[in-house]
Amino acid sequence: MIKAKKSLGQNFLIDSNILQKITNTTEIKNKLVFEIGPGTGNLTNYILKKNPKKIYVIEKDNELSNNLENKFNNQITIINDDVLKIDETKLFNEKVIVFGNLPYNISTEILSKWIVNLKEDFWFECLVLMFQKEVADRIIAQVNTSNYGRLSIICNWKLNIKKICDIKPESFSPKPKVDSSLLFFYPKKSFVKINDPNNLEKITRVFFNQRRKMLKKPFNQLFNGDQKVLNKLKINLNLRPQNLNVETYYKLAFEYEKLRS
Question: How do the domains of the chain map onto residue ranges?
């Protein structure tokens, strides 16, 4: 009997209805699939039923990795490593569909790593990922809401995001103390070009550092009160950070790069 490790944020998905819903999110047949943190292989089983071209799974836990090898034999390719330390762009020679019941303690870190390192030629076709509901709510939050912030802005830069469903703790073993949400991400056809994504991170960090304060102080800190930028982007400095839409933040990062070059 394999026990979930708290230190690795493990909660194994056991609800067959949810497992089916996840694999029905997108067409898998004859596609390359990459599963993050397969655990005991419950989702892997459902993916196999959809006849993918090939399945790669990445599992950090040695015990789980060995168990998956015994369970699936040669049906899957197992990478016994940390997803935060690998370069996915070098793993595949065609686009993949990514599935992941992400460990809650590092879910935003994984997603941020992917987004920040995305080139114009995406290495994935789509992402089907599970998050703690509170995190998912921040990812899909709309402008002028309390959940809207850095995560919403960074995640929506190059990706369209759709919520599939919420998932109750009873669908997992052991039961987490919070609800979860399943999100579907797919590439945008066009987006504001920012040469260094760290500039977008910096812009959002400075602006949301004091989210209840007006925009004047962070704007002056980054742009020295540059009136041309204000006029060009039609920004009212009496507004607060959550009142600026995502596109304005991308344009601010673009203007910030121009000023620094």
Answer: 6-187, 197-260
